[in-house]
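Data's thin. Show one?
=====
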Amino acid sequence: MNTITRTAENATRTAITFKKVLFFIVTFFICTQNFAQGATDWPLEKMPVDLETDYALSALPPHLRNDATVYLLDPQKGYYVGRQGSNGYICFISRTEWEWNEFRNDIITPISYDAEGASSIFPIYMAVAAMRASGKYKATQIRDTIIQRIETGFYKAPSKPGMSYMLAPVMRVIPGNPPEVTEPITISMPHYMLYAPYLTEENARFKKGTDGLMLANPDNAILGNGKGPYGYVIVPASEKEKAVIVDDGKDLLKRLVAYKAYFRTETGSAHHHGPQM
């Protein structure tokens, strides 16, 4: 083998080795970047326990609060029982909306369920919170997991009529369905939610162009129209009742604003109403 041949072979081996090293570096960089993106947006701030408890309870009418079970959120583990109740009602603060495929730190919504909702709907909130708290899942993975569990029947629709209370004096929500609406707002809109599995906007109004019922079912936007098992008909509190709720909750409102400035309310009342078809 002459010198020229050996030199060419050495150059080829060097080029191949360089390409392998470069490929490894690029791959490593991409993987670490992806991990960093998944690992930095999932943590949630722990609310002060007293504030979280009182805010969660504000979702319920006063006569149901004393004996309701309160779930609190440990950002490192998920929901846990902060106070055991006896009347079948539960309340908690929702911090992650899986349908939107995004980890946000500024969604804070007090929700309560009766016994039916506690057994059929709340387990999804628990699973989502636990997956996010683990730091092992991206938002897309959580969404896909919940979709798969719904489609295979692991999670089921409420089996009988029932109601969820969302009577807090203020809440931070996303005012619409994914993917059209993505930014949360702070509003004062205490309301009642009647379970309406699989109900569509089309079947909740007289005809196209009329308002019809106020319907919330973001799952329809994810699973397909009429396939969302966790729909609600929304009944807003009357203006008179809302005034009483806000007045009763004025001290809570001050504490919330002191905790986070975004609890200052914005006007608006139709954050649950989905798009017209």
Observations:
- The chain has one domain: 49-263.
- The longest strand covers residues 69-74.
- The beta strands are 69-74, 78-83, 90-94, 109-113, 163-166, 171-173, 185-187, 191-195, 214-216, 232-236.
